[in-house]
Amino acid sequence: MTIRNKAYIAGAWEHPLRVIPDLSTPELHATCAAGALADAGLSHSDVDGYFCAGDAPGNGATNMVDYLGLKVKHLDSTETGGSSYIIHVAHAAAAIAAGKCSVALITLAGRPKSERFNAFRGGGPDEQFEWWTGYSTSNAYGMCAARHMHEYGTTSEQLAWIKVAASHHAQHNPNAMLRDVVTVEDVVNSPMIADPLHRLDCCVVSDGGGALVVVSPEIARSLSRPLVAVRGAGEAVQGHGGGRGLDLTVTATSQSAPRAFAEAGVTPADVKYASIYDSFTITVLLQLEDMGFCAKGEGGRFVADGNLIAGTGRLPFNTDGGGLCNNHPTNRGGITKVIEAVRQLRGEANAPVQVPDCDLAAVNGIGGILGLRHAAATLVLERQ
Amino acid sequence: MAAVPSRPLPAPQPSVETQPFWDAAAEGRLTIKRCGSCNEPHYPPRGRCPFCFSDATTWENSKGEGAIYSLSTMRRGPNTPYVLAYVTLDEGPAVMTNIIDCDPDTLAIGDRVEVAFTPTEGGPPVPFFKPVAR
Ligand SMILES: [Zn+2]
Questions:
Q1: For residue A302, what are the contacts with CB-CB under 8 A and spacing of at least 6?
Q2: Domain A8-115+207-230 sits in which CATH superfamily?
């Protein structure tokens, strides 16, 4: 049993604004849903499966299905933070392959800039042993970066190249929050937030949202959009494991990516474009190693000298500017990673960053907090 | 320049599973759990061993000494700087904590540290660590 070629991403839509004071959060979900359905050429009444995560107001999918007026026969509220929506694509493909639904709608929306943001601090079993440490994303990811530097000699300048590449892409995205091209010096001279991560090693905070429509092969072929197949998927969770064998230089991507590539029957060398979750520069570096684009410890050398810049680099990544420059809707960057991969595969990316003949893309996300516990998700997508 | 946390520390909320840990903390003892089946120690403490799933876990005093596995000094925001770290205890488990009574700019991975229980707001003290006096 495989999901390979059993489902296609027919609709993908991202809200163009980064500050959205005039829509409620459920309304923003609805707006994104309408955008993705219109993109696919499908209607509200075609939807028979619905997927959402913790950003959706209310009780899992229940409130949103009611609010959106959907008539669905398959629900999934898998919540893994920012990687949720990448997992939703995989779960939608599995549900479609099993005949549980044929038009699956996935939505994300939130407005941390426009309303009081309720970050989930949520009652996990180990919270009483962690909360008082003053952990946040920046210092937890800072510990991962510090350990990688200690073990492999990775430098702040190498990490900075990841932001530099993202900024080269964002200059061509009229919707991006940060469109100025930055240099390695700009990054390492920006204020230190949590050693060794500087302000420009961190992603932006934005309102926003997006939606995806995943459909059966029969429906995909009946539509007028390019065929973007789900070829493989993987997911995995990693924490600090009872304190044994802690290794902050490895992410759960080391488990999810091999599963996805094996299901797809391809290798990292076949990938023409990669969407890599970029909450921080170090997040990208660790995922690139764990996906197999380079050996563990080689990430610093791999990303240096513009190697991630479309047109000149070996592996163009996050050509919309990513979370580092474009947007990070409601602090969850997973859905925008899938959306930009779909644009690349359709040939609809911004012209200066469109990868020529882009027929195979990989998407990887990290949800939760590296250094504490996180869920990784990998997708391999193909234009057919 | 010592980075002693001046921020208020929220009281930990013990559960029936973890109350003995916090009772020991109030007495200045750092405890971990050890499995009677596979003999592996673990932290944070759980009733059931995360490695072999046996419920034959027992409390054990840690010497409260170890080495810094990794660290990050928080520079921005209220009550900064403070040093978030993982300390690998000599017994094996890694503990997420803060390093206090230190100079964050000279602190390094591998430095030896010892537990330094620190008061919280109306609850049991929490296990921070400080550099071992040379
Ligand atoms: Zn055991």
A1: A285, A288, A289, A293, A294, A315
A2: Thiolase/Chalcone synthase (3.40.47.10)
Per-residue model confidence (pLDDT) at position A121: 47
State the DSSP code for B11: P
Tell me, what CATH number does B112's domain have? 2.40.50.840
Residue-wise pLDDT for A81-96, tens only, equals 999 999 999 999 999 9
Give the Cα separation of A75 and A53 in Å (integer): 11
User: Would you call B86 and A246 a contact, using CB atoms and an 8 Å cutoff?
Assistant: yes
Residues lining ligand 1 (ion), CB within 5 A?
B 35, 37-38, 49, 51-52, 54
Which ipTM did the prediction report?
0.93
What is the pLDDT at residue A123?
63
In chain A, which residues have their Cβ closer than 8 Å to the Cβ of B84? 133-135, 139-140, 142-143, 194
pLDDT in the model for residue A125: 80
Asked if the A129-205+231-383 domain carries CATH number 3.40.50.800, the reply is: no
Q: What percent of chain B has pLDDT over 90?
A: 85
pTM value?
0.94
Q: Which residues of chain A have pLDDT under 70?
A: 116-123
For tokens 């059931």, the residue is B48
Residues A135, B84: C-beta atoms closer than 8 Å: yes
The pLDDT assigned to B78 comes to 87
Average pLDDT over residues B30-49: 96
Chain A hits for B5, Cβ within 8 Å: 134
What are the helix (H) ranges across chain A?
25-40, 61-68, 84-97, 137-152, 156-170, 184-188, 217-222, 253-264, 281-291, 299-303, 334-346
Cβ of residue B53 closer than 8 Å to a chain A Cβ: no
The answer to whether A132 contacts B9, with C-beta atoms less than 8 Å apart, is yes
Nearest CA in chain A to B11: A132
- Look at chain B and report how many structural domains it folds into: 1
Tell me the CA–centroid distance for residue A141 and ligand 1, in Å.
30
